[in-house]
Known about the structure:
Chain A: Pfam families: B12-binding, OAM_dimer. Chain A: Residues 109-253 form the B12-binding domain. The complex is a heterodimer of chains A (254) and B (555). Helices cover 32% and strands 23% of the residues of chain A. Chain A has 254 residues and is an alpha/beta fold. The longest helix of chain A is centred in the last third of the chain and has 19 residues, at 235-253. Chain A is elongated, with a radius of gyration of 25 Å. Chain B has 555 residues and is an alpha/beta fold. In chain B, helix 4 packs parallel to helix 11. Chains A and B meet through strand 2 and helix 3 of A and helix 12 and helix 18 of B.
Amino acid sequence: MSVDGVDKKIVRPYGDTTGDGMVQVSFTLPVPHDKRGEGAAVQLAGKMGIDPAMLVHAKQMGDGYTFFVVYGRVNHLVDVSAVQVVERDFPLLSAKEINALVKQRLRRKLSVVGACIGTDAHTVGIDAILNVKGIAGEKGLEYYRELKVTNLGAQVSVPELVEAARVEKADAVLVSQVVTQRDAHLHNTREMSAAFREAMPAGRRPLLIVGGPRFDETMAEELGVDRIFGRGTTPGEVASYLAHALITSRRAAA
Amino acid sequence: MRKGLRERANHRVCQRGGRAAERSDGVRPKLDLDPVLVARARELARRAGQPVVDLARSHTTVSVERAVLRLAGVTGADPDGIPWVNRLVDAVVADVGLGHGVAASVFDALAREDLTDVTLLAQKAAAGSVRFTQPTGRAATAARRAARKAAAAGVRQIDRRRAERDRLVKRYGDPKQRPWIYLIVATGDIYEDIPQAQAAARAGADVIAVIRSTGQSLLDYVPEGATREGFAGTYATQENFRLMRAALDVSSKELGRYVRLTNYASGLCMPEMATLAGLERLDMMLNDSMYGILFRDINPIRTFVDQRFSRQVHARAGIIINTGEDNYLTTADAVEEAHTVTVSQLLNEFFAHEAGLADWQLGLGHAFEINPDVPESFRLELAHALLARELFPDAPLKWMPPTKHMTGDVFRGNLLDGFFNLAGTLTGQGILLVGMMTEAVVTPWLSDRDIALQNVRYVLGAAGGLHEDFVPAPGGFIQQRARQVLGEAVRLLERIGEQSLLTAIAEGTFGIMKRPPDRGKGLDGVARHEADYWNPATEILEAQPTGAEPTAVRS
């Protein structure tokens, strides 16, 4: 890999020659476009490790903001062998792939029941994941042809949720919790998981998933659920997890 | 006097856009559409839509009743932020139900309690110290007279706002170019939105839209007051409307062109949003006939009832509605499902005309969402955009930028937006929503907006008149494609006609969602009219069909 045969994976950015270290960045500074403004942009580029920095474009926008484009040689080295990656333990799949998996391997619609439980009336989270509208340009689970989604909405009691999961033959139950006053989200989640354990034998229990901005994703076991999703989770991640947990990993184990 | 003012204004609107004139001297039909087929498409849309109109005319909703009471003067919210108008309607519904309309009961109670302020009555009702009954005989006559007077004062305020807009447009002028340039701001904080909106106007935006907070469409009340936090958007409140409109009035004066303001009449509070928009002189409102049903799982009957009332208010207020056909193409394939856009446009047009909106108020939507990897994707886009243009020659079409096929590759995104802008000017679109190269990456940065506006200015500057030379070859690719889509639209409308629109929606004809009429959010806020149903606002709004005026003036 490396030029001199040593297995050190040190690289620099590539412009048009190996090792030239060239990068291009653009940013806005809250300054008017004048000599001093351009100097400020070059100073920032310098602090970013770009030296020499070529200021190739500067344009004032409105009062007192200027957009800059800078090209230059960056003096940082990248050690590829020292790169650490947090691996997701399931692959991210497209809606098409997920639909195909469900159709071919499950051979029926995958049933998902969602709700906000307790007094929580914030359906923002569950709706972002379930509604077709989705979030951040990603469609919600309703969009997946092979998923049957039942969104119970807000302020659903735990017994109602268990009953709905039974009626809909839920493969997975999604619960959203936004309100965290006096740890309501943790109490509600524990109550919910206990109710499912009590009502259904282990093999028949749906996958239990909770989500919300204040959950610690490592607490799943402690709360008695299969998975916790935190802030910024997209429908695609949830759907991919469903496919992984309910189809691909199960088949592998069987 | 008021009416005279409005007519003059409408006259000017028609002259100004020059759409009618433009059609007769400039733009000749380019697609050679079969006029018999076009007429048939409209007739089928009417047939599909009429049962829904009948349904809307025979039902009311909590939001319609709340809108009536807002017109009649109920304002403010309780200490928990729940509007007094919600508390009042809930109290009346608990005592006498929803199906009679709440206005007579409210004004009957007002007289019995010896009050003049309806908000005070709402506060007493919320405390449980007022009983409501359905008045009869002389009490009913007196209550109706008082309710009509109060609601008329609200409608008069909307009329004054409309006249005020007409005056300001006359004073400052409209944008010099078509399409109008439409930009979005959405920080969540109205006080942060204001300088951003003003900067956008200065940079060339003709229309500012303030995106709502995620999830507001599913709130069954309108939040109150100036708000400083939201999720990916700013809450739509009457006070936020007022603050932003006042700020854009300052910008209009500074820039010498009237800068328009847009918000959303969608979700569970459509009628109230329309009312507040009319009261605060908003200029455009997003208002689709089926969006809430398909994408937000709102009950179909609730949506159609709310939609009709909201459109009657928009008609009266001189507000341009923006419909949401672009959304179908974000879920379905933009080539295969192109005809569903046409069908929805035809239905939106029918519902809008029925509610009194004139053609110049119909910002029918469509979008540049074909996968750029599809061969000849740009020609297909031109065919679809031109089809909409020629089917609705007098509507200010709303042209929406690519979103589905935008990636983190901002350079490619900027190129795609350039083609989108070119298609917009080449096919004579009315309102162009500025595409951001950072779509799907971040909420737009200051520099993203600046780059996007440069893109628009370059294309409009370099090719703004190219539509004069752009004549698709007779019988060529573009003409054939447009005819094919129209043909598919007619066939879909025929299928809908066989079942009824509600069945079609229940069976998943639009988008891919199945939405039965007995399901969905907000159903418990719907009631069939009792024999004595009455509301003063509908009576006033239907007495004077404002939508017909521009046509009369034009001819």
